[in-house]
Amino acid sequence: MNTTNANALAAMADALCATAEEAGRIILDIYEEGFEVELKPDDSPITRADRASHVFVSKRLGELYPDIPLLSEEGIHLPIAERSRWQRFFLLDPLDGTKEFVKRNGEFTVNIALVEGRSPVLGIVRIPVRGVTYWGGPHLGAFRRHDGGEAQPIATAAPGPGGPVLLASRSHPAPETEAFAARNGVTRRIDAGGAVKFCLLAEGTAHLYPRFNVTWEWDTAAGHALILGAGGSFTAPDGGDFPYNKEDLANGGFFAAWK
C-alpha cells in the first residue's frame, strides 16, 4: 500500500484546508440567501448547500489529486467490490450537521478525510459560521486556525478538578448517553452538532465522546484523524479498531476520549 509521508501530508493539509474553507464560503452564501429543505429516502434533510459544497469539493479534489478516489455522502456509493481495490481515498461530508444548518444554530461543518487502507491519516473540519478550521492526523499533530490568524497546535487535555466533560449529539440524543454518564459519575456535558464535537475534544474543551446511535463513515473520518493527531483515542465501544471502507458504510458505536 502507498502511504503518504508527513511532509506530503502537511502539504496536502494546506490544500484541503483551503478547499474546505472555500466550500464553507459557498455554504454561508446559501445560509444567508435562504434555502428549501428536502428529504432524502432515509428521511434525513438535504439542501442546495449540501449539493453545492459536494460539487465544489469533488471537482477541486479531482483537479488536485486525480489519482485518489472520492467517497462522498452526496455522491455515488460504489460497491465494495470496487472500493476494496482502493489503497487510499478521500471521505467527504460536504455539509455535516444539515439539521443544525436548517435550525440556523451554526453547528455545521465541512469534513474532508484522507483514508489509507482502513484508517484515516488526515482530517480537516471547517466550521464556516465560526470562521475556524481544524486539521490533523496521527503522524501530523493537530492544529486550529481562525480566519486571518496563524495555525496553533492543539492537544487533548486531562479532566480538571471538576471531572470530565462529556460530549453528546444535539440532534440525535440517545438514552445510552445518559446511562453512560450516570454509570461513570459524569456530571458535566456539552451538547453540540456535527463534527464540532470532535473539535471540542481535540482542543481540550471536553474529554469524552461516547456515541451509541448510527453515524456514517463520512461523519467520523475527519474527526477521527483530528483526535488521533491531538493525542486522543478513537475506538469501537469494546476498545477495538474502528475501520473504514466497510461493505456497509454505516458505523457502529464508538468511544473517543482525551487519551
Automatic annotation (TrEMBL):
Required co-factors: Mg(2+)
Reaction catalysis annotation: adenosine 3',5'-bisphosphate + H2O = AMP + phosphate
Keyword annotations: Cell inner membrane, Cell membrane, Hydrolase, Magnesium, Membrane, Metal-binding
Binding, Mg(2+) 2: 93, 96, 219
InterPro entries named among the record's database cross-references: CysQ (IPR006240), CysQ/Inositol_MonoPase (IPR050725), Inositol_monoP_metal-BS (IPR020583), Inositol_monophosphatase-like (IPR000760), Inositol_monophosphatase_CS (IPR020550)
Binding site for substrate: 73, 95-98, 219
GO cellular component, one term: plasma membrane
Sites where the protein binds Mg(2+) 1: 73, 93, 95-96, 219
Gene3D superfamilies, per database record: 3.40.190.80, Fructose-1,6-Bisphosphatase, subunit A, domain 1
GO biological process, one term: 3'-phosphoadenosine 5'-phosphosulfate metabolic process
One Pfam family from the record: Inositol_P
Purpose: Converts adenosine-3',5'-bisphosphate (PAP) to AMP.
Entry similarity comment: Belongs to the inositol monophosphatase superfamily. CysQ family.
Name this polypeptide is given: 3'(2'),5'-bisphosphate nucleotidase CysQ
Protein species of origin: Desulfobaculum xiamenense
Gene for this chain: cysQ
